[in-house]
């Protein structure tokens, strides 16, 4: 079984055009869990590709992008609206 990681991507982008491009980019890899936050279950290749594609959309003078690889997390708890996906096995 291929090793996968839970990845959390959070952004704050000033420009609407860049923000829309970021949303499209991140939707290709994961699900939106908050207005400016996405989570994904990615293998190493997908993770590296997502980092390359998303990081070029940021204007480092005014925007921010944070990507967290959740390590040693067995359970993910959620409350409120939004799709909850069951994750069988995660090796971080």
Pick out its properties:
nuclease, 2 helices, metal-binding, hydrolase, 92 residues, four-stranded antiparallel beta sheet, elongated
Summarize the structure in words.
This protein has a single domain, classed as Alpha-Beta Plaits (2-Layer Sandwich), CATH 3.30.70.240. With 92 residues, it is an alpha+beta fold. The protein has a 4-stranded antiparallel sheet, with helices on one face. The chain is elongated. Helix content is 26%, strand content 29%. Strand 2 and strand 3 form a beta hairpin. The protein has 2 helices and 4 strands, in the order E-H-E-E-H-E. Keywords: Antiviral defense, Endonuclease, Hydrolase, Magnesium, Metal-binding, Nuclease. Belongs to the CRISPR-associated endoribonuclease Cas2 protein family. It comes from Phascolarctobacterium succinatutens YIT 12067.
The portion of residues forming beta strands comes to 25-35%
Number of domains: 1
The name CATH uses for the topology is Alpha-Beta Plaits
Q: How many helix segments?
A: 2
Largest beta sheet, briefly?
4 strands, antiparallel
Output the helix-strand order: EHEEHE
Helix content: 25-40%
User: Could you tell me how far the N terminus lies from the C terminus, measured between alpha carbons in angstroms?
Assistant: 13 Å
Radius of gyration: 14 Å
C-alpha geometry: elongated
Classification by helices and strands? alpha+beta
Classified by CATH, the class is Alpha Beta
The largest sheet has its strands arranged as 2-3-1-4
Q: Runs with pLDDT <50, length 5+?
A: none
CATH architectural name: 2-Layer Sandwich
Total strands: the figure is: 4
Average pLDDT rating: 83
């Amino acid at each position: 079984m291929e090793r996968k990681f839970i990845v959390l991507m959070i952004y704050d982008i000033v420009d609407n055009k860049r923000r829309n491009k970021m949303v499209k980019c991140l939707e290709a890899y994961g699900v939106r869990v908050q207005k400016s936050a996405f989570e994904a279950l990615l293998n190493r290749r997908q993770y590296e590709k997502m980092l390359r594609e998303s990081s070029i959309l940021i204007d480092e003078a005014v925007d921010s992008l944070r990507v967290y690889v959740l390590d040693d997390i067995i359970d993910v708890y959620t409350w409120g609206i939004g799709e909850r996906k069951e994750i069988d096995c995660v090796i971080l």
